Automatic annotation (TrEMBL):
Presence of the UniProt keyword Nucleotide-binding in the record: yes
Chain intervals with Basic and acidic residues compositional bias: 571-588
Record-linked Gene3D superfamilies: P-loop containing nucleotide triphosphate hydrolases, Valyl-tRNA synthetase, C-terminal domain
Domain ABC transporter: 2-259, 326-539
NCBIfam families: ribo_prot_ABC_F (NF000355)
Region of interest: Disordered: 537-588
Keywords for this protein: ATP-binding, Nucleotide-binding
High-level lineage: Bacteria, Pseudomonadati, Thermodesulfobacteriota, Desulfuromonadia, Geobacterales
Organism superkingdom: Bacteria
Any one GO MF annotation of this record: ATP binding
Tagged with keyword ATP-binding: yes
PROSITE patterns in alphabetical order: ABC_TRANSPORTER_1 (PS00211), ABC_TRANSPORTER_2 (PS50893)
Organism: Geomonas propionica
UniProt xrefs under SMART domains: AAA
Official protein name in the record: ABC-F family ATP-binding cassette domain-containing protein
Amino acid sequence: MLHLKKLSKDFAGKPLFTEISWHLKKGERVGLVGENGAGKSTLMRIIAGEVESSSGEIQITRGGTVGYLPQDGIIAKGQPLFAEVMTALSELQDIEREIAELTARLEHEPHDAPGHDQLLDRFGHLQEEFRLKGGYAMESEVGNVLTGLGFSPADWEKECGEFSGGWQMRIALAKLLLKKPNVLLLDEPTNHLDIEARNWLESYLQGYPYSVMLVSHDRFFLDQVCSRIAEVWNHAITDYHCNYSNYLVQREERVSALREAKRRQDEEVEKMEDFISRFRYKADKAAMVQSRIKQLDKIERIVLPPERKKIHFRFPAAPKSGKTVMELSGVVKAYGSNVVLDQVDLTVESGERIALVGHNGAGKSTLMRVLANADVTSGTVKDGHNVIKDYFAQDQAQELNASRSAYDELLADAPFDMVPQLRDILGAFLFSGDDIHKKVGVLSGGERNRLALAKLLLRPTNLLLMDEPTNHLDLFSKDVLLEALKNFGGTVVFVSHDRHFIDGLATRVVEVGGGKLESFYGDYEYYLEKTSGAAAAPGQDGLGRLTPAKGEEKAATPAEEQPDQQLSRQQQRELDKQRQKEERARERKLAEIEQQIGVKEKELAKLEEEMAAPEFFSNHEAARVAGERHAQLSSEISSLYEAWEAI
């Protein structure tokens, strides 16, 4: 489908790629990975024809097409959303117009008129082509894609210019998916998508009939979509025929093998160089010295990949708080006539890690601000005993002072006793050397987010409220943040659209939507299992898959459906709580039994050691008592094991 032949690209005399030869087969879905600045986006732009290579060539199957979605910068305006997206199917629209013209002519032209048979043939040919290319379902397909990407039917007639930057990228993605290019290039396609739209796109790409190459910082998305990982490093591409998680394992094995091979090579080279330096000026060794020099020249030196720079940090020890950290009662939050939260209740308990989920605009960020600032229209927000909270807003990086240096930005909020540690904190977030004096205004999105995260380390806290903390972070930084939050001793409430991040952290999921909150006491997989039959957004199920439109199947009336649905949800919440209590009780009981087994087995082992002594049975009474105790301990241990197995 796509073949790169000795492709090279230089920037200002420095090589980015050097004679890359690489092949993409039909139907393959490849994840392009590598360090920032390695050239992933540049390679995509070269394939898309937006940037010229320095040398080499790109071969695409005859008649093949390439479609490219950049990270940002695409804006559509001038016509309604649905009409704009329909332009992606311009070929089908042209066929449809010609069919309409031929229909009009055939209605008025006699069947025995000259050229009538040719018109009929053309009409039949176009109808068949229109059918085979899905023309009769094109409006339905456009609707499916728009719904999958989070647009409601009410948005379809809005003028495109009314949509913000993130929604503009969704419009561009919708048009690209509908065009179905033979090589689909996606650069960070999930950046502007909520979790429902990501789930839908994941499913769509899994069934995409042609080839896909994508760059993403969403590990779960890469794992689900890609069956091959191409790593851009050291001016070349290395292939791993597996998903992203397996790539990490295989890459580490490969690098370990390279390190060992380089160690052996370095030892061999050192021996040769030592021989050459010792015998260079001895006439009787001249031939051997020259032989060693030639061998050295022929050795192809092994180059190790540079160690990946990773942020590394731990949150300060969390002060102990009360059992109930926060409690919301009858909270209403409205902006004018728009009621976002309507009479909601929520209790946050110490040690919980709560993920807030819901489609864009459902009210997740509003709820986070309520938790952080208690800014409500009505109702009460009560903090628990000794609660110290810190809030990381969705646009926290934008709150930084652009005129300050990275160091001064941290210094401005640092307590006096933390000032000596500021350089260490900045170093942990990859600000070293002169980087700490960079102005905030010139930092990249990822650097700004790292600096904003660094500010969370200035003061001990026991409640972290984090709205999209992983924005602009690379895959490795996300993993480090995830580990730090797992080890955090306090309570975390967070919003994230990264499935891997939610899966790894959440112990409870709260769904926000329709002004209400619904809790699911378990991880994200449990939440998906419980909501897979319920609509997560208009036209979608809980996994983001499309559901039948109104009228396609008989639906119960609200009067018939609502009471039962409400009752079942209430019952489900109670069952969830009961299940959690039973599980905790079961774990406590198991721990108690295991402790008892350990004590009894130690006592039995000590007794058997005493009984093994040759002089032990000389005292018949002591031997009798020991024998009885041995039998009793054996019986007790057996009973404890039976109880353990039963639980």
